[in-house]
Amino acid sequence: MSGRRRTLEALSFELVMTVIAVIALIIIIAPSLVVVIVSFTSGFSLRFPPPGYSLRWYAELWNAWQLHFAAKNSLIVAFWATGLSVVLGVAAALAISRSRTLSARLLDSLFMSPLVLPALAFGLAALMLFSLVGLPVSPLTLVIGHTVVCVPYVVRNTVAALAQLEPTLLESSAVLGASRLYTFRRIVLPLIRPGIIAGAFIAFMSSFDNVPVSLFLRDAATDMLPIRMWQDLEGKLDVTIAALSGVLIIATVALVAVMERVTGLSRRLTN
Amino acid sequence: MIMNRRSLLTTALTLGAMKAFPGLSFAQARPLVFATFTGSWEEAHKAVLVPAFRKANADAAIVLDPMLSVDQIAKVNAAKANPPIDVMLHDPGPALIAIGQDLVEPYPVEKSVHYKDLIAEAQEPMGPAPFFQVVGLTYNPEAVKTPPTSWADLWKPEFKGRVGITNLNSTLGTGWLVEIAKMRGGSEANVDPAFKALEELKPNLAAVAANPGALATLFQQGQIDISPGNFNAIQILKARGVPVEFVAPKEGAIAFKTTIHIVKNSPNRELAFKLIEAALTPEVQTTLMNPPYLIVPTNSKVTMGGEIARVLAKDTAELKKKFVFQDWKKINEQRSAWIERFNREIKI
Amino acid sequence: MGTAPASRDVTSYGMGLAAPLALFFLLFFVAPLLQLFWLSLHNDTAGLHWGLGQYLHFLTDPFSLGVLGSTLLLGAEVTAVCLVLGFPIAWLYQRVGPKLQTIIILIVLLPLLTSVVVRTFAWIVILGRQGIINATLQSLGIIDTPLKLLYTQFGVVIALAQVQMPLMTLPLITALGRIEPNLDDASCSLGAGSWRTFFRVVLPLSLPGVIAGCTLTYAAAITAFITLSLVGGGQMLFMPMYLYQQASTLQNWPFAAAISIIFLLAVLAVVSVFTTLGRLSRGHGGA
């Protein structure tokens, strides 16, 4: 009797948890599917389901020169911000990863703080500083601002990869007479490369998608894609944005698939 | 001394940065930046004015940065020496402010081919008016069977949760508020009655749009059925089959001219002039007057026709007779206080 | 390269390697924030008169305090929703095979990497008057007239919860993965029911993950400018938009700076509460 109540009780628990989990997973994935479906609408509004299907908004996308301009700017800035983040972030990660000193821990907190502090406040602060020194808003100021908020991802992933490195490996390399630089190039770098790539990938995506910093550091001549999309949505609910969203979703899925292959992204983010 | 140190720092930073980022060149001049309005304005300018301008000027680089007049003024004010915008578009209120704050250049009238062809009202030496705007009531004819006839209809209980308005940052919002004040015994100097009326409107409010362009979006999405609105703002939507209509309220629709200005210290002065010239040509104005844009022209060589002649006015003389022109000098005196008050009181 | 030749420890690198990033942060992160703080201590836009006027203005103004309060409350609501929905995902993740695990992770991960504008845009389509929810409810005959979902607190919470869910779920998956599975079984075999085991064993042991997830979700939710602006609409004002309006439209930089500082401090306070809880829970778990 009690055994049966136990199983019933266990069953109820598993059922409730599974149902909530499945609902939650559907809530997570559904919006992207909705956007992809709506982007093929033949109509002018975002009715769901669409009144008919066509590729017209994708064709429209081809002529949307303002979106092209913004996308180009966003890609350039994301490229440079990622590059800068990798160079600065990997070096810093090497320095702080195995150090137990107070300064290393302080630096670690400093480098991670852009993740929790409101980026909007930082965006405003950066704009104020740049205008104080007379540096006009430009791709350069955007790259600097984006690097600050993207570098934590590189540092974190590189530190995590370094933490899994066997110290004995490096010691034996040194014992065999290899120089530090040689050991780094031939042993350390290949082993932490997937971690660096994963960090760089996330940094790139978050720069490409950055709003709070771009909001203050952009102007019309340095238009950024997320801001342009936001303004288009707020001002005229352009269905072209749905087509663009479709393109972005598919590109993201493809990139994530590649990254999963190259770096085992999913394991990295849960360890 | 401070200036020196500051510019030294800037130069050092810039030089260092340019070494580090050869791809991010500063040598390249920035494109002409035209701050148009959001929504149908942006669409009309993108589709008609910009192509005409580029065709006449060897595909010169141009970017549209749609925003409200008040935002344009704020952006230029923040960087007067190196303004981020080259061409501004202003309704009467902000135009007075921009001129008063010395943000715009006199229009080079003597160089202009089309300036002398404009109707007298549009010939503004600080920036000509390429078109007129008319504000009345817009509504969804599928949901609102009997067309509204008065501003007061917005308060009808049947429109509970169906009314859209915009905040006072736009000319539409402020102009409308003033009309409501007049309807309730107030004036350009006293809008207290209007704020009381707004309080009563709250149950009916479905949305407060951030700008007039967003109002059209709300119609498109079925979020609202009735709102004060620009005649032109809905035309593109209407042409696309979205059910939306314009009607002039019996108190009189509001009319005002919209002027276009060269920003002081613009690095693209010549192109800015060319863009404004393009906006004044009979060709561009005629195209913009025809469906789906229906923008009221100001070039005397363009005769008003079609839907505009039918719904609004046959010519400027009738326009001036039929519509309400507000005293923006008076409105400007208190406008920022109203904006502040509106933002605080209209939270639903 | 090696900056510490004296050290024979080959497994660590000199702190000098952190210098470039430290300098970069000093110049472009710390300096701007200090400048922000400096400006917030001025009573005029030009930054000539020192004073606490901006802070007094904010802290004595019911409107501003209301904006702050509703922002902090919103963050709490979103975090709660994320926790309730995210925990079962992490739980399910531990019970399925490796194939399904990868699928779950990718589903969770995808939104994190999809543009936030796109994700928010989806919610406009879903919550609108002609959106999926209203269309479904109407076709089922549950409602006659469409519900107002967009531009409401409910809409904002749901949309934000979906947008920020990965930030909650990923640390939870990590935390649950570290719990000894035998512990669960042991508790059950000792006669504790599944629910009891969950609340008495699994949940407390996963507290570090819960706290990490809550911190990230909370911090991200209250600064989600795009979602707040598009799903919240023009009537609901939260700190990010308030800050942006003051800075951009009104060019009131000292007040915007004060708003930023207050906002920063509020976030820091919440984060440190979470961190303290985390430390306490870890102490508790170790005992």
Structure explained in plain terms:
The complex is a heterotrimer of chains A (271), B (348) and C (287). Chain A is mainly α. Chain A has a single domain, classed as MetI-like (MetI-like fold), CATH 1.10.3720.10. Chain A contains 12 helices and no strands. Chain B has 348 residues and is an alpha/beta fold. Chain B folds into 2 domains: 160 residues, Periplasmic binding protein-like II (D-Maltodextrin-Binding Protein, domain 2), CATH 3.40.190.10; 142 residues, D-Maltodextrin-Binding Protein, domain 2 (3-Layer(aba) Sandwich), CATH 3.40.190. In chain B, 41% of the residues lie in helices and 15% in strands. In chain B, strands 1, 2, 3, 4, 5, 8, 9, 10 and 11 form a 9-stranded mixed beta sheet that branches. Chain B is globular. Chain B starts with a helix and ends with a helix. In chain C, helix 3 packs across helix 7, helix 5 packs parallel to helix 11 and helix 8 runs antiparallel to helix 9. Chain C has a single domain, classed as Orthogonal Bundle (MetI-like fold), CATH 1.10.3720.10. Chain C has 287 residues and is an all-alpha fold. The N terminus of chain C is likely disordered. Chain C is globular. Chains A and C meet through helix 1, helix 3, helix 4, helix 5 and helix 6 of A and helix 1, helix 3, helix 4, helix 5 and helix 7 of C. Chain A: Keywords: Cell inner membrane, Cell membrane, Membrane, Transmembrane, Transmembrane helix, Transport. Chain A: It is a multi-pass membrane protein. Chain A: It is found in: Cell inner membrane; Cell membrane. Chain A: This is ABC transporter permease. Chain A: Belongs to the binding-protein-dependent transport system permease family. Chain B: Keywords: Signal.
Brief account:
Chain C: InterPro entries: MetI-like (IPR000515), MetI-like_sf (IPR035906). Chain A has 12 helices and no strands. Chain A has helices at 2-38, 56-63, 65-97, 102-112, 119-132, 139-163, 167-175, 180-208, 212-217, 225-236, 240-263, 265-269.
Q: Could you name the CATH homologous superfamily of chain C?
A: MetI-like
Helix-strand string of chain C: HHHHHHHHHHHHH
The main β sheet of chain C shows up as: none
Q: Indicate the percent of residues in helices of chain A.
A: over 70%
How many structural domains can be distinguished in the coordinates of chain A?
Answer: 1
Report mean pLDDT of chain A, rounded to a whole number. Answer: 88
CATH topology label of chain C: MetI-like fold
Indicate the low-confidence ranges of chain A by residue numbers: none
Total beta strand runs of chain A: 0
Sheet-strand content of chain C, in percent, reads under 5%
Question: Structural class of chain C, please?
Answer: mainly alpha
CATH class of chain C: Mainly Alpha
Number of domain units of chain C = 1
